Amino acid sequence: xxxxxxxxxxxxxxxxxxxxxxxxxxxxxxxxxxxxxxxxxxxxxxxxxxxxxxxxxxxxxxxxxxxxxxxxxxxxxxxxxxxxxxxxxxxxxxxxxxxxxxxxxxxxxxxxxxxxxxxxxxxxxxxxxxxxxxxxxxxxxxxxxxxxxxxxxxxxxxxxxxxxxxxxxxxxxxxxxxxxxxxxxxxxxxxxxxxxxxxxxxxxxxxxxxxxx
Length: 213
Fold this sequence. Notes:
213 residues, 8-stranded antiparallel beta barrel, two-stranded antiparallel ribbon, 6 helices, globular
């Protein structure tokens, strides 16, 4: 059996709409994280008016994925425009109640976008987003996080490890993936060992949520 991770990024306090729709379609639930949308306007960023976001993670076996996906789309079709987006990422394995399932290959379909994940020290997500935007990305969502390195690691490896992190999620068209990664790679905030990482993964079934017009 194969699995997919459904990820929805929606307006703050609207994550329950997503999880409710998923549960009604057979999901066991989901995880809601709080993030902030990075505005396309630097002026708005200076004023501190970037919008808060709910980032919802729902793991599903592929047998129920489409039903859950459609349920979420239907539940949000009357919400305002720019309500959010929904997409899927392959999940090779799932561990549940002590058992491991999965491992089969997914079929290549509906893969027109890539999810670029950037993990940087706290305070640098905006710099990474600015570089990505210049390379063709339209926007992203930043989530506060923390590193797991021990204090002894800093002494042993001789690098400065900052525990406070930001995780930046950017969905881009596949044609822009390499340009965005190249732009992020040259950032000063990623020039030191241990300062951060970036990676990409193909996504499928990318769709915008909310009213279409």
